[in-house]
Design brief:
62% helix, 9 strands, 779 residues, 33 helices, two-stranded antiparallel ribbon, mainly alpha
Length: 779
């Protein structure tokens, strides 16, 4: 097992803090998820109180009110009398539960057994006794230390145990304990009390509910228990009698009311009670309740009463509908959250991921709601204008293809709530969103997004025509198809307009931004090419290696390409100290005049300078991360071995620590950064070892294999999701690229050599014709 020095571990823990964002608090993701949930609910599920109907006497009503539902109506004045009768006469159910007696006895015996089991052994430690007893009955937590001591001492007496248990048994046998004595007596006087016996006791007499047996808990029963305890304790010693308070409290603690009003049964009795008379009628859906079309009505008392009842019924229906929509949205949210947490390796369940998934969906839903609002109740056309393509485009640019498909499906299902679950609009949205994802699957240029809009419009129009003709082959669907086509064409424009907002707010680098940065016209790249041409050539070679490997594995090759372009910009400050830029003998001797420690410091410093330059030129965070991570915590082997040699030969007395010759890190945090690390190492090694000589494929394969194994064994891939299959794929890609780079070429003769050969040919005499034919035959 490899031991990591503490100093190195400390550097790894603090690596790259100036460029890497800290992980958000766990609560932030739930706040973001809750915010998106609330906003989507507000957009997709109209508030159940949105429509108001005047329902007060004397109010003005324009037009007429037509019932949207079937309901039963009773005049409120008659209903008031019926309600008074119901409240006065419905039976109240009171239950006598014999099981409470058994529960109290069991609880009492458990506490006494636990108290008897405490070993005092001469040590007075009520606090520890209290902890033990609290495990048996949590209510003992509120007892004082002195009470616990008295309880433990009383429990040692077997006679006291029998007395306490018998006391509880006698109390429950002789009395009915209730908290609602006054209410019961009143109901019994009004002859509306109904007694119910639960857990029938074996010896219950016919006078079970005598008024003398009913006592108020805990006030009256406390006096009864106290008196019985006082009488009985006269038989005990004075010391035990002094501890009677603990026994009293224990009894009162386990006693619970065994006679109570059964609220559930009473409510059922209330609901099932039928008043002696009623005035009720059924109003069917579509019935005109009040008023006439085009006229103004001043509401009378009866009309106001009818509209008030109808409004309450309508409000209840809309509330139930709203709750169902809320549940639908919640389930959709949970499915998406489960998918992100369980099946998405590229995206962690953070607040940023939640917002990147939710905001495009929210934007599309808001646009759809606005269009539906403009059309009023007629959604026949505007339902097809839902911009699902915006979700697909932003999903591909901000997340990835899989997440884009998920968000499109999610957004279209939620849009179904806005159009009353009319599946034809959902289907058109799904086809349009999926078309956007498919069109941008291999996104290369900005214009491809515009082409995607044309594809979305074409697919929308086609699906609308097909669905319309399936419903009614004679229908005219031209207007609906035109709406769908225009919606598809507008999707890229909406996406382009909103995309910079996402880039700024979330500090992310989209493929669109990567294409701009990888155009080789960036001022920092041009400065690198002018200042450090050797490093620039090295950068291009690394890019070719890394980009081919990234494409083969299936990771973001645009991110890899752009990261390669900027990974060594820090070498511009002291370009002459790096091998690829050392052209003159003087440049090559620069490190010979320096100590290994100083050379290492110069080499390592290009990481820090690169980060500063990247910040100065306002490069995205994802690109800046490649600068420290493409070296990780790798060992600068040349100067490390040079320092070891100097120490062994006695030329240097300074201690040589391996950590002092490593890069500061962090290690690669993503597969893209790991690919750039390997490409950088392989390119530098290949340039040093394979240039200027005939190269076999086995040499290339061995070089690449050793380079990858060195990084793997050094633990540089511990913090990324690199697999052995990925490493094998990267190796084969590197071998293929290097084989084309170092292939053997024909040695073309110079002009001087050609003239010499021509002169020599003139001086030679031609062979006889017969000898020439023989020579040709031999050949």
């Amino acid at each position: 097992m490899k031991v990591v020095p503490l100093a190195r571990r400390a550097r790894e823990l603090s690596r790259g803090r100036e460029v890497l964002q800290t992980r958000p608090r766990r609560s932030a993701r739930w706040v973001a998820l809750g915010s998106i949930f609330i906003l989507i609910v507000l957009v997709t599920a109209p508030m159940f109180w949105r429509d108001t109907i005047p329902h007060e006497p004397g109010k003005r009503l324009d037009g007429q009110v037509v019932s949207e539902l079937t309901f039963e109506y009773t005049s409120p004045r008659a209903e008031q009398l019926l309600e008074e009768e119901r409240q006065a006469n419905y039976p109240r159910i009171y239950a006598y539960d014999y099981g409470r007696q058994m529960e109290a006895k069991d609880r009492l015996e458990d506490v006494i057994d636990a108290a008897r089991g405490i070993q005092t052994t001469g040590q007075d430690d009520p606090e520890s006794w209290k902890k033990e007893l609290t495990k048996v009955d949590p209510q003992l937590e509120h007892w004082s230390a002195s009470e616990v001591r008295d309880l433990v001492m009383l429990a040692k007496d077997q006679r006291f145990r029998r007395f306490i248990v018998q006391l509880v048994d006698n109390v429950y046998r002789d009395y009915l304990l209730t908290r609602d004595k006054a209410e019961y007596l009143g109901d019994r006087k009004n002859e509306v009390a109904r007694e119910l016996i639960l857990n029938q006791p074996p010896d219950l007499g016919t006078q079970a509910f005598d008024l003398d047996r009913i006592v108020k808990y805990p006030d009256e029963i406390d006096g009864i228990v106290r008196e019985r305890l006082r009488q009985k304790l006269q038989e005990f010693s004075q010391e035990q009698a002094a501890r009677a308070q603990a026994g009293l409290r224990l009894v009162m603690m386990v006693l619970e009311p065994n006679f109570y009003k059964d609220e559930k049964a009473s409510q059922e009795s209330y609901d099932s009670y039928q008043p002696s008379q009623g005035t009720q009628r059924v109003i069917e859906q579509g019935t005109v309740l009040v008023g006439k079309e085009g006229e103004v009505t001043i509401l009378s008392d009866d009309e106001a009463d009818l509209l008030a009842v109808y409004w309450n019924k309508l409000l209840q229906r809309n509330l139930m509908k709203f709750m169902a929509q809320l549940l639908f949205i919640l389930i959709a949210f949970l499915i998406v959250a489960f998918f992100v947490m369980k099946f998405s390796r590229e995206h962690e369940f953070t607040s940023q991921t939640v917002l990147l998934i939710g905001l495009p969906v929210l934007l599309a839903l808001a646009i759809g709601r606005m269009l539906l609002f403009l059309m009023g109740e007629d959604i026949s056309y505007m339902g097809f204008a839902f911009p699902a393509g915006v979700i697909g485009i932003l999903g591909v640019l901000l997340l990835d293809v899989r997440m884009a498909l998920l968000t499109v499906t999610w957004g279209c299902l939620l849009f179904g709530l806005e159009v009353n679950l009319d599946y034809q609009y959902v289907i058109v949205g799904l086809f349009g969103g999926y078309t956007a994802v498919a069109a941008l699957y291999t996104f290369r240029e900005r214009r491809e997004v515009l082409y995607a809009g044309l594809f979305i419009g074409l697919v929308n129009a086609s699906i609308i025509l097909i669905i319309t003709y399936i419903h009614d082959p004679t229908a005219n669907a031209a207007a609906a198809a035109l709406v769908g086509a225009l919606s598809g064409v507008m999707c890229p424009l909406i996406s382009f307009a909103i995309l910079p907002v996402f880039e700024v707010l979330f500090h992310i680098t989209t493929d669109m931004r990567l294409l701009e940065l990888s155009g080789l016209q960036h001022p920092l790249l041009r400065k690198l090419e002018e200042t450090a041409p050797g490093t620039w050539q090295h950068t291009l070679n690394v890019t070719k290696l890394a980009e081919s490997a990234a494409s083969e594995i299936g990771v973001n090759y645009l991110l890899v390409r752009t990261g390669c372009y900027f990974h060594d910009v820090g070498k511009m400050g002291r370009a002459e100290y790096f091998t690829e830029n050392q052209l003159t003998p003087e440049d090559k001797r620069r490190h010979a005049e320096l100590k290994p420690q100083m050379s290492t410091l110069i080499i390592r410093n290009h990481v820090k300078e690169g980060i500063e330059l990247a910040k100065q030129y306002k490069l995205p965070r994802q690109i800046i991360e490649f600068i420290p991570q493409h070296h990780g915590t790798s060992l600068i082997q040349y100067f490390y071995h040079k320092a070891l040699t100097a120490a062994e030969s006695g030329d240097s007395k300074e201690p040589v620590r391996e950590d002092d010759y490593r890069y500061p890190g962090p290690k690669p945090q993503s597969i893209e950064a790991a690919i750039v690390m390997l490409a950088d190492t392989v390119e530098a090694t290949a340039t040093a070892k394979l240039s200027g000589r005939t190269v076999r494929e086995d040499d290339i394969r061995m070089l690449v294999r050793n380079a990858i194994f060195d990084k793997f064994n050094d633990g540089q891939f511990d913090h990324c999701n690199m697999t052995l299959r990925d490493l094998n794929t990267i190796r084969e890609c590197f071998v293929k690229v290097l084989r084309s780079r170092f292939h053997s070429r024909i040695d073309y003769p110079s002009k001087k050599d050609a003239s010499a050969k021509k002169e020599k040919a003139r001086e030679e005499k031609p062979a006889p014709r017969k000898e020439a034919r023989e020579a040709d035959g031999a050949a």
